[in-house]
Amino acid sequence: MGLFTLEQSKLAYRADFALYGGAVAGMTALLMLASPRSHGLIAVLWAVAGLVGWTAVEYVLHRFVLHGLEPFRSWHAAHHRRPGALICAPTVLSATLIVLLVFVPAWLLGDLWLSCALTLGLLAGYLAYAITHHATHHWRADSAWLRHRKRWHALHHHIDAPVCYGVTSAVWDRIFGSMPRPRDRLNPQTTN
């Protein structure tokens, strides 16, 4: 399995979590230690904007790219057929897209430190998504929140309706009308 394959080895799959965890920690430290003091509050607001923005990016990517555009649709279908397999976007692809589509434009339009803060928020959201998505497929649900997310994601995988595209949040599903119907609810015992 190479750098650009969808099905990852255990090492490559875990490296994604380590890379993004390290990037979040490193960017947080960089902003706290090196950014101008005058950027304090505004940098926090930009990081929060990046985090909130991630939830919208997650929904749009999942609904309209992974379920709508080839070749991404075919690639994502492999995950639906084999939800327990270690299938994900290669780290080199996701990292390149984040740098080119978030960090660079924010830097060109504004300030290096604020672009770092925005990217930090988005990276933290992406890391939360990656952990949550992994947990919905591979972890036992010991908390009410995770049980709910597992049921939510199971609806996305198992009912024949276009619903439940948000993995970390249902906010955009509510806004865009992709909530499951009450009769589509799964038995909680089927998702543990």
SSE layout:
Layout: H1 10-34, H2 40-66, H3 72-81, H4 91-109, H5 112-138, H6 144-158, H7 171-176
Helix pairs in contact: 1-5, 2-5, 4-5, 5-6
Describe the structure in your own words.
This protein is mostly helical. It has a domain of 130 residues. It is built from 7 helices and no strands. The longest helix is centred in the first third of the chain and has 27 residues. The protein starts with 9 loop residues before the first helix and ends in a 16-residue tail after the last helix.
Distance between the termini: 30 Å
Rounded to the nearest angstrom, the radius of gyration is 18 Å
The biggest sheet, with number of strands, parallel, antiparallel or mixed sense and barrel status, is: none
- Fraction in beta strands: under 5%
Estimate the mean pLDDT confidence: 89
Question: Helix share of residues?
Answer: 55-70%
Overall form = globular
pLDDT below 50 for ≥5 consecutive residues: which ranges?
A: 188-192
How many H/I helical runs? 7
